[in-house]
Specification:
The chain has 799 residues and is an alpha+beta fold. It has 4 domains: 1-96, no CATH class; 98-107 and 126-232, no CATH class; 393-640, Reverse transcriptase/Diguanylate cyclase domain (Alpha-Beta Plaits); 651-799, no CATH class. The protein has a 6-stranded mixed β-sheet with strand order 11-12-8-13-14-17. Strands 2-3-1-4 form a 4-stranded antiparallel β-sheet, sandwiched between helices. Strands 15-16-19-18 form a 4-stranded mixed β-sheet.
Length: 799
């Protein structure tokens, strides 16, 4: 790369004029489908803006108007619209509108998890990722922009999307020439938000919906758009005319008690006038599109729109089934039948496939670099092409991360004198479960960002903020996942049985995880059960660290009291300052490898919802950090309905004296989760008798006093002094101290809930981590540097 090319690339990647270029492009194009200036003039304008040069004379006035818009002082807000009109008459009188389109896939889990097998789930997720991260940006020629690295690696495919699909006469032949990379505000997390010339709003929205339907056949999608005036990009929705009915600050002040006004403008901890100003920004335009998106998704006709509700509906079969596919969802149209004479024929187990399932299976093979023969698809007669060059595995990206950062991930491989290229992807959950201790257990991790909507509402004021925010969050999420996997996992050698299933004569080493998706601020993983909570904790911590490193605008000025918020008080002192405004909540389900994936996903989603509720409650005490809820499910029949009902009915007791006993303590903050893992490690290291662990757990249900007495009895019977001391410091002192500092009582194994009893007549509620310690005990490895205390430990029995 020459110096001039490198400089140009850097300018494009870090271009502060990206949004300016986008707005200028829309204004210069005009409000017709044919540009008002020659296309060569527009392209020259774009290049000059990106390089900071003087633009062609024909468009200089328009560029000056956009510069004037962006130069409006951040703190300026007009008390009346008359003032705004008189202060910026050129901007007010600009009649050319700017198009804004928002769209993406909906009901994603329904499409991804309708399949029962990991290869199909993997393929469904990878196909949606390809559409969101490559196909839609390809409409805008994003392979020409260095930020879109995945598009750059699939340049030929992106060009093919435009030439062989978008530009076809039956699709949208004029659209691609009206779109440039700078128009895209973001295209991550399954959604896209982008500017476009006003005349192409409906075409772009239709193209988004049609692309999802034609590529997936059954995935739901939705896209909406609208045209906005130039000043609306800075001050939100504005009226066409100013008269006595015009709604602005004065009318807002006079109708503060109106429920509709309150619902639309009110924000917690914000005075009414500030709430109005924070609402009247570009964020209001995005919110307007989000509301229309929900309307259209729910089947409602939008006002002032003649678009059909079902332009490109997903395929739903209504005829009787002849032969069902593997997932029993739709009619099978082919069988990938294997042949004993030709190992390249068919697929294992001779599955019956519908076209939808066949596409998922094929993309799943590509995404996992599964080099098994794909002859079965070639023989099917389907003419759909998967876009092989555009389908990237998350493991590919993980390996690139390993290449770019220092790590010890491959230490075990190198000690065996093997090259990292020998490490392959896991092909099934059984292979991931083989890496766990004990074998056969896996964990589903589902993480999602906290306070994202609140941050957008208060902090995002313009398209550039949206763009920066989207890129920052996607980057922080991706890096936090890779950092956690690198820290806690290492390549795993499959057992001989699983190796034989791969028909391999050599030892097979795998990456022991599956990244189902990393999109925007959400993450879905499958990992070995024994590392799940440590990985979840590190993802949450790394996310906050990565976000804080992006800039001070993500740093919160709120401080919380650790003595009140945190239930774990170990030796390490923590402080409640230097918090990120954004964090992650995580649900973790530890279960057997043969648990149906669709069922596991539903439970993990419930755990995530519980963790997010806990984070929302703690926010009232100025805690902005992450939270984790988890459940160890040894059998599918353990929970018949939902987790909240299981806990309230099966794990909550109201004994005599109206004392409420919670036999669990989840969810946890990240600090508390670290303490829980440390305490579980202590129990393992001191070899606390397993029978007594279970016996104390069984006694929790009887009463608070019974559990306390039995715990004390078992603890003092440990003749190993070190074991007693560790239990006292790591469990009793760290978790079970009374809330009053001058109270020297001992509640172990209970903790009292943090409640303001001076204002409440309710009885104290007690909770315990003991049940979760017992659940985690089989998944904790004994520390290597711990001496064996079993010879000096006296086994006791219940009396």
């Amino acid at each position: 790369m020459t110096d001039s090319t490198a400089t140009k690339t850097t300018l494009q990647l870090n271009n502060p004029n990206s949004i300016k270029t986008a707005i200028c492009w829309c204004l210069a194009w005009g409000d017709k489908k044919q540009p008002q200036f020659p296309l060569s003039v527009l392209q020259q304008m774009r290049q000059d803006l990106n390089e900071g040069k003087e633009v062609p004379e024909q468009v200089r006035l328009l560029v000056e108007q956009v510069r004037q818009l962006q130069d409006i002082d951040k703190n300026y807000f007009p008390p009346t619209l008359e003032e705004l009109k008189s202060k910026y008459p050129e901007l007010w009188n600009q009649k050319t509108c700017i198009g804004l389109v928002y769209g993406g896939a909906t009901k994603i889990k329904q499409y991804v998890f309708e399949a029962t097998k990991l290869p199909d789930i993997r393929g469904a997720s990878a196909l949606l990722d390809r559409i969101n991260l490559v196909d839609l940006p390809a409409f805008f020629s994003c392979e020409q922009h260095p930020y879109y690295s995945q598009c750059q690696r699939a340049k030929d495919y992106c060009k093919k999307v435009r030439e062989e699909w978008l530009d076809k006469a039956e699709n949208f032949p004029q659209l691609s020439q009206a779109l440039i990379p700078e128009l895209v505000i973001y295209s991550t997390g399954g959604n896209i938000l982008a500017f476009c010339p006003a005349a192409f709003v409906d075409d772009l929205a239709k193209a988004i919906e049609k692309r999802y339907t034609e590529e997936t056949l059954t995935a739901n999608s939705c896209a909406v758009g609208d045209k906005f005036k130039l000043l609306e990009i800075r001050f939100g929705l504005l009226p066409d005319e100013i008269n006595n009915e015009t709604f602005w600050l004065e009318k807002y002040r006079n109708h503060l008690e109106n429920p509709l006004i309150q619902a639309y403008f009110d924000q917690p901890d914000t005075n009414s006038e500030e709430a109005f100003k924070e609402r009247k920004t570009f964020n209001e335009l995005a919110g307007d599109l989000a509301a229309k998106f929900n309307q259209r998704r729910n089947g409602n006709q939008l006002q002032e729109s003649d678009r059909s509700l079902h332009c490109y509906p997903p395929m739903f079969e209504t005829h009787p089934y002849l032969k069902r596919d593997e997932g029993d969802r739709r009619s099978a149209v082919m069988q990938a039948k294997s042949s004993p004479d030709d190992p390249n024929e068919g697929l294992p187990s001779d599955p019956w496939l519908s076209e939808v399932t066949a596409r998922k299976r094929l993309v799943g093979q590509i995404a996992k670099r599964d080099n098994a023969n794909r002859k079965w698809y070639e023989q099917s007669g389907f003419d759909w092409e998967p876009g092989k060059d555009a389908v990237e595995s998350w493991v590919d990206k993980f390996e690139q991360h390993l290449h770019d950062t220092p790590h010890r991930y491959y230490g075990k491989i190198r000690s065996e004198n093997l090259h990292p290229s020998r490490v392959k992807e896991a092909l099934s959950v059984r292979e991931i479960g083989d890496a766990s201790t004990p074998n056969g257990f896996i964990a589903y991790i589902y993480a999602d960002g906290n306070n994202m909507g609140g941050y957008i509402q208060k902090e995002i004021e313009n398209p550039a903020d949206y763009q920066r925010f989207s890129r920052d969050i996607f980057d922080a999420t991706e890096k936090s996942v890779y950092a956690a996997l690198t820290k806690h996992l290492q390549p795993h050698k499959l057992n001989s049985k699983l190796q034989a299933e791969r028909k391999s004569t050599k030892e097979v080493w795998i990456h022991p995880f599956e990244i189902l998706t990393i999109g925007g601020d959400d993450v879905m993983l499958i990992v070995p059960a024994d590392k799940a909570l440590a990985i979840a904790k590190t993802i949450g911590e790394e996310f906050e660290k990565q976000v804080l490193n992006k800039g001070k605008y993500y740093e919160s000025d709120k401080t919380y009291n650790p003595q009140v918020v945190q239930r774990y008080h170990g030796e390490k002192t923590i402080y409640g300052d230097k918090q990120s405004k954004l964090s992650m909540s995580t649900g973790v389900l530890i279960t057997a490898e043969d648990t149906p994936i669709y069922y596991a996903e539903k439970l993990t989603s419930q755990l995530l919802k519980s963790a997010k509720k806990y984070a929302k409650d703690l926010k009232k005490q100025n805690y902005y950090g992450g939270t984790v809820d988890f459940l160890v499910m040894k059998a599918v029949t353990m929970i018949s309905s939902n987790i909240a009902e299981f806990r309230s009915q099966g794990l909550t007791k109201s004994g005599q004296g109206q004392q409420k006993l919670k036999l669990y303590a989840a969810p946890y903050t990240l600090h508390e989760l670290g303490g829980l893992l440390e305490t579980a490690q202590v129990l393992k290291d001191v070899e606390f008798p397993k029978s007594q662990l279970y016996q104390i757990r069984s006694l929790l249900e009887r009463s608070k006093q019974t559990a306390i007495l039995n715990y004390r009895y078992f603890r003092v019977r440990l003749t190993n002094k070190k074991a007693q001391d560790l239990l006292k410091t790591q469990f009793e002192d760290a978790w079970c101290r009374p809330k009053q500092l001058n109270n020297n009582g001992n509640l172990a194994p209970w903790m009292s809930l943090k409640e303001d009893k001076e204002k409440s007549q309710e009885k104290v509620t007690y909770e315990t981590i003991w049940r979760e310690l017992v659940d985690l005990y089989p998944f904790i490895k004994k520390s290597q540097n711990t001496s064996n205390p079993s010879q000096t430990q006296q086994q006791t029995s219940s009396t």
